[in-house]
Protein backbone atom coordinates (compact mmCIF):
# COMPACT_ATOMS: atom_id res chain seq x y z
CA UNK A 1 0.00 0.00 0.00
CA UNK A 2 1.22 3.45 -0.82
CA UNK A 3 0.95 6.54 1.31
CA UNK A 4 0.36 10.23 0.84
CA UNK A 5 -0.82 10.99 -2.68
CA UNK A 6 0.17 7.66 -4.18
CA UNK A 7 -2.27 4.79 -4.37
CA UNK A 8 -2.48 1.39 -5.98
CA UNK A 9 -5.24 0.89 -8.48
CA UNK A 10 -7.27 -2.25 -7.92
CA UNK A 11 -5.91 -5.28 -9.66
CA UNK A 12 -6.57 -9.02 -9.50
CA UNK A 13 -4.15 -10.91 -7.34
CA UNK A 14 -3.87 -14.59 -6.54
CA UNK A 15 -2.91 -15.57 -3.04
CA UNK A 16 -2.14 -19.15 -2.14
CA UNK A 17 -3.91 -20.49 0.93
CA UNK A 18 -2.23 -22.86 3.34
CA UNK A 19 -3.59 -26.33 2.84
CA UNK A 20 -2.79 -29.88 3.76
CA UNK A 21 -3.50 -32.14 0.80
CA UNK A 22 -5.19 -30.92 -2.35
CA UNK A 23 -4.48 -27.41 -3.55
CA UNK A 24 -7.25 -25.01 -2.59
CA UNK A 25 -8.72 -22.49 -4.99
CA UNK A 26 -6.93 -19.18 -4.70
CA UNK A 27 -8.62 -16.03 -3.50
CA UNK A 28 -9.03 -13.03 -5.73
CA UNK A 29 -7.87 -9.89 -3.92
CA UNK A 30 -9.10 -6.48 -4.96
CA UNK A 31 -6.26 -4.26 -3.82
CA UNK A 32 -7.47 -0.77 -3.04
CA UNK A 33 -5.91 2.62 -2.50
CA UNK A 34 -4.08 3.88 0.53
CA UNK A 35 -6.14 5.46 3.31
CA UNK A 36 -6.91 9.17 2.96
CA UNK A 37 -8.23 11.42 5.69
CA UNK A 38 -11.98 11.91 5.74
CA UNK A 39 -15.12 11.38 7.74
CA UNK A 40 -16.70 7.95 8.01
CA UNK A 41 -20.47 7.83 7.83
CA UNK A 42 -22.68 5.18 9.42
CA UNK A 43 -22.03 1.85 7.78
CA UNK A 44 -25.08 -0.34 8.08
CA UNK A 45 -28.52 0.33 6.73
CA UNK A 46 -31.47 -1.04 8.70
CA UNK A 47 -33.43 -3.77 6.94
CA UNK A 48 -36.36 -1.44 6.38
CA UNK A 49 -34.38 1.27 4.62
CA UNK A 50 -33.49 -0.75 1.55
CA UNK A 51 -36.19 -3.44 1.77
CA UNK A 52 -38.76 -1.42 -0.19
CA UNK A 53 -38.84 1.74 -2.29
CA UNK A 54 -40.26 5.02 -1.07
CA UNK A 55 -44.03 5.21 -1.15
CA UNK A 56 -43.79 8.65 -2.73
CA UNK A 57 -43.43 7.18 -6.23
CA UNK A 58 -40.75 7.82 -8.86
CA UNK A 59 -38.88 11.12 -8.68
CA UNK A 60 -38.54 11.40 -12.44
CA UNK A 61 -38.84 9.61 -15.75
CA UNK A 62 -36.96 6.31 -16.17
CA UNK A 63 -33.34 6.80 -17.16
CA UNK A 64 -32.22 5.43 -20.48
CA UNK A 65 -30.15 2.22 -20.45
CA UNK A 66 -26.43 2.92 -20.60
CA UNK A 67 -23.47 0.78 -21.64
CA UNK A 68 -20.12 1.67 -20.06
CA UNK A 69 -16.83 0.08 -21.09
CA UNK A 70 -15.81 -1.83 -24.18
CA UNK A 71 -14.99 -5.25 -22.70
CA UNK A 72 -16.23 -8.57 -24.07
CA UNK A 73 -17.78 -9.77 -20.80
CA UNK A 74 -21.17 -8.15 -20.32
CA UNK A 75 -22.40 -7.41 -16.79
CA UNK A 76 -25.88 -6.10 -15.91
CA UNK A 77 -26.19 -3.43 -13.19
CA UNK A 78 -29.70 -2.73 -11.83
CA UNK A 79 -30.23 0.42 -9.73
CA UNK A 80 -33.33 2.47 -8.78
CA UNK A 81 -32.04 5.57 -10.57
CA UNK A 82 -35.44 7.21 -11.02
CA UNK A 83 -36.82 6.27 -7.57
CA UNK A 84 -37.74 9.10 -5.22
CA UNK A 85 -35.90 10.42 -2.18
CA UNK A 86 -32.91 8.67 -0.63
CA UNK A 87 -33.23 5.66 -2.93
CA UNK A 88 -32.59 7.70 -6.07
CA UNK A 89 -29.72 9.57 -4.41
CA UNK A 90 -28.13 6.29 -3.28
CA UNK A 91 -28.59 4.78 -6.74
CA UNK A 92 -26.81 7.68 -8.47
CA UNK A 93 -23.91 7.47 -6.01
CA UNK A 94 -23.65 3.70 -6.54
CA UNK A 95 -23.72 4.20 -10.32
CA UNK A 96 -20.85 6.69 -9.99
CA UNK A 97 -18.90 4.24 -7.83
CA UNK A 98 -19.44 1.44 -10.35
CA UNK A 99 -18.09 3.61 -13.17
CA UNK A 100 -15.19 4.67 -10.93
CA UNK A 101 -14.28 1.02 -10.34
CA UNK A 102 -14.29 0.42 -14.07
CA UNK A 103 -12.03 3.45 -14.63
CA UNK A 104 -9.58 2.45 -11.86
CA UNK A 105 -9.30 -1.21 -12.82
CA UNK A 106 -6.45 -1.73 -15.28
CA UNK A 107 -7.90 -2.55 -18.71
CA UNK A 108 -11.03 -4.42 -17.56
CA UNK A 109 -12.55 -6.84 -20.05
CA UNK A 110 -16.11 -6.01 -19.01
CA UNK A 111 -18.94 -3.83 -20.28
CA UNK A 112 -21.49 -2.57 -17.76
CA UNK A 113 -25.10 -2.63 -18.94
CA UNK A 114 -26.70 -0.11 -16.54
CA UNK A 115 -30.49 -0.42 -16.18
CA UNK A 116 -32.87 1.79 -14.20
CA UNK A 117 -35.25 -0.54 -12.32
CA UNK A 118 -37.19 2.45 -10.86
CA UNK A 119 -37.21 0.74 -7.46
CA UNK A 120 -39.98 -1.70 -8.38
CA UNK A 121 -40.14 -5.48 -8.97
CA UNK A 122 -41.63 -4.80 -12.42
CA UNK A 123 -38.73 -2.49 -13.25
CA UNK A 124 -36.23 -5.06 -12.00
CA UNK A 125 -37.81 -7.76 -14.14
CA UNK A 126 -37.74 -5.53 -17.20
CA UNK A 127 -34.14 -4.43 -16.63
CA UNK A 128 -32.99 -7.99 -15.97
CA UNK A 129 -34.66 -9.27 -19.13
CA UNK A 130 -33.01 -6.52 -21.19
CA UNK A 131 -29.58 -7.24 -19.70
CA UNK A 132 -29.92 -11.00 -20.28
CA UNK A 133 -31.10 -10.46 -23.85
CA UNK A 134 -28.03 -8.27 -24.41
CA UNK A 135 -25.75 -11.07 -23.20
CA UNK A 136 -25.16 -10.29 -19.52
CA UNK A 137 -23.25 -13.12 -17.82
CA UNK A 138 -24.00 -11.87 -14.30
CA UNK A 139 -26.39 -9.34 -12.75
CA UNK A 140 -25.32 -6.80 -10.09
CA UNK A 141 -28.30 -5.51 -8.06
CA UNK A 142 -31.12 -4.87 -7.42
CA UNK A 143 -30.97 -2.75 -4.27
CA UNK A 144 -34.45 -3.46 -2.87
CA UNK A 145 -35.40 -6.79 -1.29
CA UNK A 146 -38.79 -6.77 -3.03
CA UNK A 147 -37.09 -6.58 -6.43
CA UNK A 148 -34.59 -9.41 -5.93
CA UNK A 149 -37.04 -12.32 -6.47
CA UNK A 150 -38.24 -10.72 -9.72
CA UNK A 151 -34.65 -10.70 -10.98
CA UNK A 152 -33.87 -14.19 -9.64
CA UNK A 153 -36.86 -15.73 -11.42
CA UNK A 154 -35.31 -14.80 -14.77
CA UNK A 155 -31.63 -15.41 -13.96
CA UNK A 156 -32.17 -18.88 -12.50
CA UNK A 157 -33.87 -20.00 -15.72
CA UNK A 158 -30.70 -18.96 -17.60
CA UNK A 159 -28.20 -20.26 -15.01
CA UNK A 160 -26.91 -16.70 -14.41
CA UNK A 161 -25.69 -15.58 -10.96
CA UNK A 162 -26.88 -12.43 -9.17
CA UNK A 163 -24.94 -10.25 -6.71
CA UNK A 164 -27.65 -8.12 -5.07
CA UNK A 165 -27.30 -5.21 -2.63
CA UNK A 166 -30.26 -5.88 -0.31
CA UNK A 167 -29.65 -6.22 3.45
CA UNK A 168 -32.53 -8.69 3.82
CA UNK A 169 -31.04 -12.20 4.08
CA UNK A 170 -34.40 -13.80 3.29
CA UNK A 171 -34.03 -12.96 -0.42
CA UNK A 172 -30.65 -14.72 -0.72
CA UNK A 173 -30.58 -18.24 -2.10
CA UNK A 174 -29.49 -20.46 -4.96
CA UNK A 175 -27.55 -18.30 -7.39
CA UNK A 176 -28.44 -15.05 -5.55
CA UNK A 177 -25.63 -13.63 -3.39
CA UNK A 178 -25.86 -10.55 -1.18
CA UNK A 179 -22.97 -8.09 -1.18
CA UNK A 180 -24.24 -5.89 1.63
CA UNK A 181 -23.65 -5.12 5.29
CA UNK A 182 -25.65 -7.86 7.00
CA UNK A 183 -26.44 -7.53 10.72
CA UNK A 184 -25.49 -11.18 11.25
CA UNK A 185 -21.79 -10.44 10.62
CA UNK A 186 -21.82 -7.61 13.16
CA UNK A 187 -23.40 -9.72 15.88
CA UNK A 188 -21.09 -12.66 15.29
CA UNK A 189 -17.98 -10.48 15.43
CA UNK A 190 -18.86 -8.47 18.55
CA UNK A 191 -20.08 -11.44 20.63
CA UNK A 192 -17.11 -13.59 19.62
CA UNK A 193 -14.79 -10.73 20.57
CA UNK A 194 -16.56 -10.18 23.90
CA UNK A 195 -16.29 -13.90 24.64
CA UNK A 196 -12.56 -13.80 23.89
CA UNK A 197 -12.17 -11.09 26.55
CA UNK A 198 -13.92 -13.20 29.20
CA UNK A 199 -17.55 -12.07 28.89
CA UNK A 200 -19.96 -14.91 29.61
CA UNK A 201 -23.28 -13.42 30.80
CA UNK A 202 -25.24 -11.13 28.52
CA UNK A 203 -28.22 -8.81 28.79
CA UNK A 204 -29.84 -7.43 25.63
CA UNK A 205 -32.32 -4.69 24.77
CA UNK A 206 -33.35 -4.65 21.11
CA UNK A 207 -35.88 -2.85 18.89
CA UNK A 208 -39.12 -4.58 17.92
CA UNK A 209 -38.66 -4.36 14.14
CA UNK A 210 -37.22 -6.32 11.21
CA UNK A 211 -33.65 -5.38 12.10
CA UNK A 212 -34.18 -6.32 15.75
CA UNK A 213 -35.63 -9.69 14.77
CA UNK A 214 -32.61 -10.62 12.65
CA UNK A 215 -30.20 -9.42 15.35
CA UNK A 216 -32.12 -11.34 18.05
CA UNK A 217 -31.87 -14.66 16.18
CA UNK A 218 -28.13 -14.30 15.57
CA UNK A 219 -27.42 -13.01 19.10
CA UNK A 220 -29.12 -16.00 20.76
CA UNK A 221 -27.42 -18.41 18.38
CA UNK A 222 -23.87 -17.09 18.82
CA UNK A 223 -24.13 -16.69 22.62
CA UNK A 224 -25.23 -20.32 22.84
CA UNK A 225 -22.51 -21.47 20.47
CA UNK A 226 -19.83 -19.69 22.53
CA UNK A 227 -21.07 -21.23 25.79
CA UNK A 228 -22.49 -17.98 27.20
CA UNK A 229 -25.83 -17.30 28.88
CA UNK A 230 -28.47 -14.62 28.49
CA UNK A 231 -29.56 -13.27 31.87
CA UNK A 232 -32.01 -10.68 30.52
CA UNK A 233 -33.58 -10.10 27.10
CA UNK A 234 -36.17 -7.45 26.22
CA UNK A 235 -37.49 -5.77 23.09
CA UNK A 236 -39.07 -2.33 22.84
CA UNK A 237 -41.43 -0.45 20.58
CA UNK A 238 -42.61 3.07 21.28
CA UNK A 239 -42.34 2.40 25.03
CA UNK A 240 -38.71 2.06 26.05
CA UNK A 241 -39.12 2.74 29.77
CA UNK A 242 -40.71 -0.61 30.74
CA UNK A 243 -38.25 -2.90 28.94
CA UNK A 244 -35.37 -0.66 30.11
CA UNK A 245 -36.42 -1.11 33.77
CA UNK A 246 -36.52 -4.90 33.38
CA UNK A 247 -33.04 -5.01 31.85
CA UNK A 248 -31.61 -2.48 34.32
CA UNK A 249 -32.69 -4.66 37.25
CA UNK A 250 -30.80 -7.66 35.82
CA UNK A 251 -27.50 -5.94 35.00
CA UNK A 252 -25.94 -6.97 38.30
CA UNK A 253 -25.59 -10.54 36.99
CA UNK A 254 -24.44 -9.59 33.46
CA UNK A 255 -20.91 -9.07 32.08
CA UNK A 256 -22.09 -7.16 29.01
CA UNK A 257 -25.14 -5.34 27.64
CA UNK A 258 -25.95 -5.70 23.95
CA UNK A 259 -27.83 -2.82 22.25
CA UNK A 260 -28.56 -2.66 18.52
CA UNK A 261 -30.21 0.46 17.16
CA UNK A 262 -29.29 3.54 15.13
CA UNK A 263 -27.89 6.79 16.52
CA UNK A 264 -30.91 8.76 17.77
CA UNK A 265 -32.79 5.69 19.01
CA UNK A 266 -29.72 4.27 20.71
CA UNK A 267 -29.15 7.47 22.68
CA UNK A 268 -32.81 7.41 23.77
CA UNK A 269 -32.44 3.79 24.89
CA UNK A 270 -29.29 4.64 26.88
CA UNK A 271 -31.16 7.52 28.54
CA UNK A 272 -34.04 5.18 29.42
CA UNK A 273 -31.63 2.70 31.01
CA UNK A 274 -29.95 5.45 33.01
CA UNK A 275 -33.35 6.73 34.16
CA UNK A 276 -34.19 3.17 35.28
CA UNK A 277 -31.13 3.16 37.54
CA UNK A 278 -28.57 1.43 35.31
CA UNK A 279 -24.96 2.58 35.66
CA UNK A 280 -23.71 2.02 32.12
CA UNK A 281 -20.14 2.81 33.18
CA UNK A 282 -20.08 -0.44 35.16
CA UNK A 283 -20.89 -2.80 32.30
CA UNK A 284 -19.38 -3.41 28.89
CA UNK A 285 -21.73 -2.08 26.21
CA UNK A 286 -21.78 -3.97 22.90
CA UNK A 287 -23.33 -2.99 19.58
CA UNK A 288 -23.49 -3.31 15.80
CA UNK A 289 -22.38 -1.20 12.84
CA UNK A 290 -25.37 1.10 13.34
CA UNK A 291 -23.36 2.59 16.23
CA UNK A 292 -21.00 4.23 13.73
CA UNK A 293 -22.90 7.51 14.11
CA UNK A 294 -22.03 11.02 15.36
CA UNK A 295 -24.93 10.94 17.84
CA UNK A 296 -23.46 7.85 19.47
CA UNK A 297 -19.97 9.35 19.69
CA UNK A 298 -21.42 12.48 21.33
CA UNK A 299 -23.34 10.52 24.00
CA UNK A 300 -21.59 10.47 27.43
CA UNK A 301 -23.52 7.33 28.40
CA UNK A 302 -22.17 5.31 25.46
CA UNK A 303 -18.46 6.17 25.78
CA UNK A 304 -16.31 3.03 25.86
CA UNK A 305 -18.95 0.88 24.17
CA UNK A 306 -17.68 -1.61 21.60
CA UNK A 307 -19.20 -2.30 18.19
CA UNK A 308 -18.33 -4.28 15.07
CA UNK A 309 -17.86 -2.45 11.76
CA UNK A 310 -15.57 -2.42 8.72
CA UNK A 311 -12.20 -0.78 9.29
CA UNK A 312 -12.96 2.87 8.37
CA UNK A 313 -9.66 3.44 6.56
CA UNK A 314 -10.92 1.77 3.37
CA UNK A 315 -13.96 4.01 3.13
CA UNK A 316 -11.86 7.12 3.84
CA UNK A 317 -9.61 6.29 0.92
CA UNK A 318 -12.54 5.56 -1.36
CA UNK A 319 -14.33 8.77 -0.29
CA UNK A 320 -11.27 10.86 -1.09
CA UNK A 321 -11.02 9.44 -4.60
CA UNK A 322 -14.77 9.76 -5.14
CA UNK A 323 -14.78 13.41 -4.04
CA UNK A 324 -11.87 14.19 -6.34
CA UNK A 325 -13.75 12.67 -9.27
CA UNK A 326 -17.34 13.77 -8.62
CA UNK A 327 -17.04 16.77 -6.30
CA UNK A 328 -19.39 15.31 -3.68
CA UNK A 329 -19.40 12.72 -0.89
CA UNK A 330 -20.51 9.16 -1.71
CA UNK A 331 -23.34 7.43 0.13
CA UNK A 332 -22.07 4.70 2.42
CA UNK A 333 -23.46 1.92 0.23
CA UNK A 334 -21.51 3.19 -2.81
CA UNK A 335 -18.64 0.87 -1.84
CA UNK A 336 -20.90 -2.11 -2.55
CA UNK A 337 -21.25 -1.11 -6.21
CA UNK A 338 -17.52 -0.42 -6.45
CA UNK A 339 -16.58 -3.78 -4.95
CA UNK A 340 -19.10 -5.65 -7.10
CA UNK A 341 -17.69 -4.20 -10.32
CA UNK A 342 -14.07 -4.63 -9.23
CA UNK A 343 -14.84 -8.23 -8.26
CA UNK A 344 -16.42 -9.19 -11.59
CA UNK A 345 -13.59 -7.45 -13.46
CA UNK A 346 -11.03 -9.46 -11.49
CA UNK A 347 -12.90 -12.73 -11.99
CA UNK A 348 -13.32 -12.03 -15.72
CA UNK A 349 -9.56 -11.64 -15.98
CA UNK A 350 -8.46 -14.61 -13.87
CA UNK A 351 -11.11 -17.32 -13.76
CA UNK A 352 -11.80 -18.26 -17.39
CA UNK A 353 -15.18 -19.56 -18.58
CA UNK A 354 -16.25 -20.49 -15.02
CA UNK A 355 -15.67 -16.92 -13.81
CA UNK A 356 -19.15 -16.32 -12.32
CA UNK A 357 -20.02 -19.89 -11.33
CA UNK A 358 -21.16 -20.69 -7.78
CA UNK A 359 -17.87 -22.53 -7.20
CA UNK A 360 -15.84 -19.39 -7.95
CA UNK A 361 -18.16 -16.95 -6.16
CA UNK A 362 -18.25 -19.07 -2.97
CA UNK A 363 -14.47 -19.42 -2.76
CA UNK A 364 -13.89 -20.01 0.99
CA UNK A 365 -10.78 -17.81 0.93
CA UNK A 366 -13.02 -14.89 0.01
CA UNK A 367 -12.16 -11.54 -1.53
CA UNK A 368 -10.67 -8.28 -0.27
CA UNK A 369 -12.65 -5.13 -1.02
CA UNK A 370 -12.85 -1.54 0.15
CA UNK A 371 -14.49 -2.53 3.44
CA UNK A 372 -12.17 -5.47 4.07
CA UNK A 373 -12.47 -9.20 3.60
CA UNK A 374 -15.76 -10.76 2.51
CA UNK A 375 -16.97 -14.09 1.21
CA UNK A 376 -20.24 -15.45 -0.10
CA UNK A 377 -21.84 -18.45 1.54
CA UNK A 378 -23.59 -21.16 -0.47
CA UNK A 379 -26.95 -19.94 0.89
CA UNK A 380 -26.32 -16.52 -0.71
CA UNK A 381 -25.57 -14.64 2.53
CA UNK A 382 -22.12 -13.24 3.20
CA UNK A 383 -19.51 -13.11 5.92
CA UNK A 384 -17.34 -10.05 6.46
CA UNK A 385 -14.06 -9.64 8.27
CA UNK A 386 -14.92 -6.78 10.63
CA UNK A 387 -12.94 -4.66 13.06
CA UNK A 388 -13.99 -3.99 16.65
CA UNK A 389 -14.33 -0.27 17.40
CA UNK A 390 -14.62 1.66 20.68
CA UNK A 391 -16.94 4.65 21.07
CA UNK A 392 -15.01 7.85 21.81
CA UNK A 393 -16.02 11.50 21.60
CA UNK A 394 -13.69 11.90 18.61
CA UNK A 395 -15.29 8.96 16.76
CA UNK A 396 -14.77 5.22 16.54
CA UNK A 397 -11.33 4.03 17.65
CA UNK A 398 -10.09 0.57 16.54
CA UNK A 399 -9.67 -1.95 19.36
CA UNK A 400 -9.19 -5.09 17.26
CA UNK A 401 -8.39 -5.00 13.56
CA UNK A 402 -10.25 -6.80 10.83
CA UNK A 403 -8.86 -10.25 9.97
CA UNK A 404 -6.46 -10.62 7.05
CA UNK A 405 -7.86 -14.02 6.13
CA UNK A 406 -10.78 -16.27 7.01
CA UNK A 407 -9.92 -19.13 9.34
CA UNK A 408 -10.25 -22.72 8.20
Automatic annotation (TrEMBL):
UniProt xrefs under Pfam families: Peripla_BP_6
Highest taxon, organism lineage: Bacteria
CDD domains attached to this UniProt entry: PBP1_YraM_LppC_lipoprotein-like
Keywords (A to Z) from UniProt: Amino-acid transport, Signal, Transport
Keyword Signal: yes
UniProt region (Disordered), positions on chain: 1-23
Gene Ontology biological-process annotations: amino acid transport
Chain ranges of the Leucine-binding protein domain: 72-395
Key word Transport present: yes
Family listed: Belongs to the leucine-binding protein family.
The protein's name in its UniProt record: Amino acid/amide ABC transporter substrate-binding protein, HAAT family
Species, as recorded: Bradyrhizobium erythrophlei
Highest classification ranks of the organism: Bacteria, Pseudomonadati, Pseudomonadota, Alphaproteobacteria, Hyphomicrobiales
Amino acid sequence: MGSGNSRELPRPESSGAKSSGATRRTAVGLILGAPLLGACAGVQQSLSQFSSPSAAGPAGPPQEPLAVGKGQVKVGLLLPLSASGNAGVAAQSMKNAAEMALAEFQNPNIQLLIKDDAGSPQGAQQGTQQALDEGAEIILGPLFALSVPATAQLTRARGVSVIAFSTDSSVAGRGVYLLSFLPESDVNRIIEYATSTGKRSYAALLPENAYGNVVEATFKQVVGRKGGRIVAFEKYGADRAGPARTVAQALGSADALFLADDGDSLVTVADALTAAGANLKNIQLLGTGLWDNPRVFASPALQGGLYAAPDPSGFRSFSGRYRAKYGADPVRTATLAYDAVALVAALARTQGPQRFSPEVLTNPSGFAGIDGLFRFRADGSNERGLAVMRVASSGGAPVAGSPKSFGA
